[in-house]
Amino acid sequence: MFTLPETVTSILARLESAGHAAYAVGGAVRDLIRSVPPHDFDLTTSARPEEVMALFANETVIPTGLQHGTVTLVIDHTPYEITTFRGESGYADHRRPDAVCFLDSIEDDLARRDFTAGAIAYSPTRGLCDPFDGVADVKAGVLRAVGDPMTRFSEDGLRVLRALRFASACGFTIEAQTARALHEGKHLIAPVAAERIYNELTRTLCGANIEQVLLTYGDVLAVAIPELTPLFGFPQNTSYHDRDVWAHTAATVAAIAPEPVLRWTMLLHDIAKPACHYTDARGTSHFKTHPEKGAPIAEAILTRLKAERATREEVTVLIRLHDIDLPKERADIHRLLVRLGKERTLRLLAVKESDLSGKSPYGRTHGRDVILPEVKETVEFLLAEGAPLTVRDLAVDGSDLLSLGLRGREVGDTLSRLLEAVIDGTPNRREALLGLIDG
Ligand code: ATP
Ligand code: MG
Fold first, then answer.
1. If you measure from the C-alpha of residue 114 to the centroid of ligand 2, how many angstroms do you get, rounded to a whole number?
2. What is the CATH code for 230-360?
3. Fold of 149-224
4. CA distances in angstroms from 48 to 64, 71, 82, 127, listed in the order given
């Protein structure tokens, strides 16, 4: 029915030949059914963890979570998680099971899994095991809880966010009862550890169906990020916009490349708009200083969610910059590249592009950022021709200046002056630059 990679087939065969049942399970089986290449393989077996360790003693086996029955087998640098059939009980804190017990039947293992689409097991020798009709749901693009949705969400609040992640990343429609339980049970995510919330949110944000998820489940997200609440339905009475702040936000998240920094930036870029809003005498909305006010709010959110420092810092910087006036002239665009560096400049342009795409037809054609295509072209031209972005990229260096007799601060100051000269049109060539010093 499916073709599993050879390595997976041989791992399953080794477990079977030792008398155990073994299957591929979870996301990989789901992805094979919907003809998407799986990114990794989770395996499940009746063998106990120590038996798995013993069977693969000649390979790299990491006891990832022995008490939960999981070992990670690494073959050719690829990790395969092998988890013993297990059940869970007593979710007193709505986070983690109080106890797990190992089981002998695959059906019982599948019953503890959260959604039908991930509760399908497949083995080349045993075929499909699909007690919850997950195959039909995957084919129909439906995300459905295994069993009673509210019970499953109360056991583990992370599942609420996992549902949004699967809806976003796989484009699944959440089945009605499961959807209702998500809204009703949204507070169950509150006790979940910040890192796990951040991880799920990031994966959700990077999904292709994110706009729909944001528009439908904003209230759920707001449990993790209450600062989003003022954006919902907040009107923008300006000809540049034809959607409320949240609908605009959702559109811009979807419009940018699915990289965590960019997606988080768009989610939070207008976070301070409601707080900065005022209406002028003609009834037009203004949101002055919202980038400066929004940056520290975004920083606080990402700190609270324990985002990696690099992500937090870059998102904060991009939000602060997102509404700046772009320069038109080549030299000024070169200066922007020097000030921000290549990567940050490209990210800022991407942010502005997606921001612009979420505006009204009038806003897209009359706003200050209508010059974006030309700016982008100039940036690409400058990068392609190898325009110097720091003094290190100049055709002369400090030792050239020292041999000309310059000393101390003069060296750095002169290099900066030479970079300015190149920005203003002097060719970045040794003779041309040395000529400037002599003169
Ligand atoms: P992905 O493509 O993102 O890897 P996945 O479905 O494999 O999707 P994982 O987080 O890798 O998701 O988990 C593997 C499987 O383990 C899931 O399909 C699901 O059956 C089960 N699972 C994981 N986390 C939970 C949880 N919190 N509650 C219940 N079942 C879970
Ligand atoms: Mg997986």
1. 13
2. 1.10.3210
3. Hydrophobic Seed Protein (1.10.110)
4. 14, 10, 10, 22
